[in-house]
Request: fold
Amino acid sequence: MGASATRNIESSPLYNHDLAPTATPSQAATTHRIARTWGTYNYAALWISMSVNILTYMLAASLIQGGMDWKQAVFTVFLGNSIVLVPMLLNSHPGARYGVPFPVLARASFGVLGANVAAVLRALVACGWFGIQTWIGGEAVNVLLSTVWPGWGRVPHGAGICFLLFWLINLAVILKGIDYIRFLQGISAPILLAVGLVLLGWAYVNAGGFGPMLSARSRFNTTSEFLRFLIPALNATVGFWATVSLNIPDFTRFARDQRSQMIGQAVALPPTMTLYSFIGVAVTSATVVIYGSAIWDPVQLLSRFRSPVAIVVSLIAILLATLNVNIGANVVSPANDFSNLWPRKINFKLGGVITCFMGIAIMPWKLLSSYKTFIFGWLGGYAAFLGPIAGIMICDYYLIRKRVLSVDDLYLRGGAYEYSGGFNWKAIAALGLGAAAALIGLVVPSVRFLYDYSWFVGFVMSFFSYLVLMSGTKVPVHEAALEAPVRN
Reply:
């Protein structure tokens, strides 16, 4: 990319420093852009830090509360994460090759302005996850205060006050900037892994060993009963990371080469999710033996510990780790997505602040009111929109454009991705068809399976409808786009 082309991009209203393409090592020496320096270890560490979190624990624990035994629950988590790894790696490729973040990549298929539809849908889901993690952190603060100050339990709206307090802490970290966020994210996994092992040890002792704690049987009497729960549970497990499977270019844009990001993700995501899920499954199964009912919320479980010291130490660890994971996993993407709405006015920090306020507006306490709301409502609901977006972007990049993009035109009006006034209405139509096909199962009981498989149904419907709609569209090939991509 020449100097004149760079100046042309930088003067565009679709450009800002946070959305700019990352530079290859040779380019970084002559520009002020961030270089592509991440290797295999960085991507493995990224997924370990994001997978080892309270919501991974709660996802697996909710499967036990829903009626699965430990083997069924662990297998469901492993299978779901192995499935979602496929679109994850497919969407990773253009990020690593061209160095562009998710909202900019979406401009190729949705149009330079239409990409905001995909970006905002993704951002709203991230805001929901931000609110959920913040609510969990606030819950931990509430239990912590009640432990060290018993009178706190009589304070009106104590849980809400603690939620807002933890929310303010998150906001303060966001205002520190992206470098501080990446530093915090790197230390979250060991802390939460330690908390998980403490809970596992407690369950082992109090339940009388692994035999009793894993003895809880499946509550499904027939195969059909099991499948009725497995289908939406598997869909929810895929939906758990369907968010990051879209915005993974936000991270792979920093990759030194394709091999590093692919191996790093493949060796870390399914194994780490499965391992930490086993801890959630085992501890939740043990609560059935110890208390007679499944407790899927680790904060509520910790509140039953008899030792105040154990409660305080564990909850402080959960607070720190939840803060780290929340900022790293649920702020980077929506901050970029909101920045894409108005690049000249909204930078990364302002996008993060918007995420904070949207996290309150989504009312996360309602999303965590029960495992049914969490699995069938939240995870299954947003999967109906994210599956179609993934289908469209993957179809566009691999089948329509044959992996050739013009980086300059992704930042310019009137270029290859202008379509009709900045919108590719064929992509919007394919998105609508995919989402409608999945959501119709909510209102027509006879086709409920469409909603139970919302991510899969939406992905397939949008993929093929976009392919058909774009079949007669002439796609320009810009050889200049291949000037300095990561080719391998």
Observations:
- Residues 3-482 form a domain with the Hydantoin permease fold (CATH 1.10.4160.10).
- The two ends are 19 Å apart (CA to CA).
- The first helix runs from residue 3 to 10.
